[in-house]
Design goal:
Layout: E1 2-5, H1 16-30, E2 35-38, H2 48-56, E3 59-66, E4 72-79, E5 85-89, H3 91-94, H4 112-123, E6 128-132, H5 143-148, E7 152-154, E8 173-175, E9 187-191, H6 204-208, H7 216-237, H8 249-258, E10 263-265, H9 267-275, H10 277-281, E11 286-291, H11 303-313, E12 317-322, E13 338-341, H12 349-354, H13 356-376
Parallel strand pairs: 1-2, 1-11, 5-6, 6-9, 9-10, 11-12, 12-13
Antiparallel strand pairs: 3-4, 4-5, 7-8
């Protein structure tokens, strides 16, 4: 029997890899003869790099780059097991948690370090990129990244502007002539579940600016600057990009990647394809997935729903194990054979989070016993 375990993280308690390994241990205890494969899932945010390196037996590259506030930081990127694909997680080079709460101001943060990591990976011979956009502290539209890659954004004095959000209004000319020459050989697959356009009330500044520390006035200025910047880039490239779904992801970084010819895809899809999840599922007898909280919103593109969709394609049953089941979770039964909460007694949320691993193990073990008994009775 083959069991594929593909959970997302249980945020605040277990990474996707930890959750997957915990479920695997429970199944191996009850079904020692089974083939159990763990493929941690992610949606392009925190944990994307770890999930892909684990699934593909990839390599972590520790390095130094520019952080969100312009300081030099220790960070990393990854190389998948194919030896050809670089993985960069936005949250590890310009993530919101990297900026102290009292210093959060997206007019002053930058994506420059992301461009530096791309340069490093290109110089290492890599030409395929997967970039997870979740959890950014920035709102510069990819200005900093593009500058690090060689693009020029000039003010009225012909000087390259600072690579930060407040510079967007100052740009009067754009020049991509000196972009890294090897970029033409590169492909970028962008993992993001954000479908917002770049500008306007549904754009990057208005929707995501407040959580990054922007005031109402800063939001207005950032959005006006973003429109100025985007119009100039589109004019220079002779293409329309700012209203493509996902252009507003990560403070407009999605737009910056679109300017490089990138493809923005569902984060779950990118991770699943890179990890070869579908090939494992088509041979599986059961699929186990999970997340920290499951409710009706799980049906709107979250990783467990994507996993269940792949399994349904091959007639394989999927079981959902979550930290908790919330409003509308009954709707999930149309896509999952059964849905389970790991909480086995009345307890405060803090206790459930603190004991997530043993609770998950116990729940998974019970499910493994049921599957094992059912298989023996056939």
């Amino acid at each position: 029997m083959k069991i594929v375990i593909a959970p997302d993280s249980y945020k605040g308690s277990l990474s996707a890899k930890e959750a997957g390994n915990t479920i695997r241990e429970a199944f191996m205890l009850e079904m020692p003869g089974a083939e159990v494969v763990v493929i941690p899932m992610a949606d392009g945010g925190e944990g994307t790099l770890d999930s892909l390196l684990f699934s593909t037996n990839g390599e972590r590259v520790n390095t130094v780059a520019t952080g969100p506030l312009g300081e030099q930081i220790h960070t990393c990127y990854g190389i998948l097991g194919d030896g050809e694909t670089a993985v960069i997680e936005m949250a590890l080079v310009a993530g919101l948690p990297m900026v102290p709460e009292d210093m959060r101001n997206p007019t002053l943060t930058t994506t420059f370090g992301l461009g530096e990591l791309i340069n490093q990976a290109i110089d290492k011979g890599l030409r395929k990129f997967i970039v997870g956009l979740g959890g950014s502290a920035t709102n510069d539209g990819g200005l900093g990244m593009l500058q690090a890659l060689g693009a020029a954004f000039l003010d009225r004095n012909g000087i390259n502007v600072k690579p930060i959000g407040e510079s967007l209004q100052q740009i009067i000319a754009v020049d991509f002539t000196n972009l890294h020459p090897k970029l033409k050989e590169c492909t970028f697959r962008i993992a993001s579940d954000v479908e917002n356009p770049l500008c306007g009330e549904n754009g990057a500044s208005y929707v995501f600016g407040p959580q990054k520390g922007a005031t109402e006035e800063q939001i207005r200025v950032l959005d006006e600057g973003m429109s100025n910047y985007a119009n100039l880039v589109e004019e220079h490239l002779k293409t329309k990009l700012q209203n493509i779904p996902g252009a507003g992801a990560a403070g407009g970084l999605g737009f910056g990647f679109l300017a490089l010819g990138a493809e923005i895809l569902s984060g779950s899809q990118v991770v699943a394809e890179a990890a070869g999840l579908e090939n494992h599922i088509k041979e599986a007898d059961w699929v186990i997935t999970g997340e920290g909280q499951s409710d009706y919103q799980t049906l709107y593109g979250k990783a467990p729903f994507y996993v269940a969709g792949l399994a349904e394609k091959y007639g394989v049953g999927t079981i959902l194990i979550s930290g908790g089941l919330g409003k509308g979770h009954e709707q999930l039964l149309e896509h999952f054979v059964s849905c389970h909460s790991i909480v086995n007694a009345p307890m405060p949320l803090e206790k459930a989070i603190a004991h997530a691993q043993p609770l998950l193990f116990s729940c998974a073990r019970n499910i493994a016993r049921l599957i094992n008994r059912a298989s023996q009775s056939k």
